[in-house]
Specification:
The chain is an all-alpha fold. It has helices spanning 4-15, 20-27, 33-36, 42-90. It contains 4 helices and no strands.
């Protein structure tokens, strides 16, 4: 998943605001990180975030989770492509 610095940069490019407190809330505490990224809690967390940061902050929260999911699947895809290529090479398939 993208490091906090990457989230700050993309938020800043989108909105002119890094939303550092929001991204740190999502990523910084390893014990709460999974719960704060739980998509079944988007409504509950989203209400709290919108009250604190407004609609733009709410959108940045959702975008953060979107960007993490996208990066995770790109990583899985990369690992899978490598495993397939390694297996084909092992079997002598070209
Ligand atoms: Zn994250």
């Amino acid at each position: 998943m993208p490091p906090i610095a990457k989230h700050l940069k993309t938020s800043s490019e989108r909105t002119g605001n890094e939303y550092i407190e929001l991204h740190e809330w999502l990523d910084k505490d390893p014990e709460k990180k999974a719960e704060r990224h739980d998509i079944t809690k988007i409504y509950e967390h989203g209400k709290m975030i919108e009250e604190k940061y407004g609609k733009e902050g709410l959108q940045e929260y959702i975008q953060h989770i979107h960007d993490d999911v996208k990066a995770k699947f790109e990583h899985i895809q990369h690992d899978m492509e490598k495993a397939v290529a390694d297996t084909l090479a092992y079997l002598g398939v070209k």
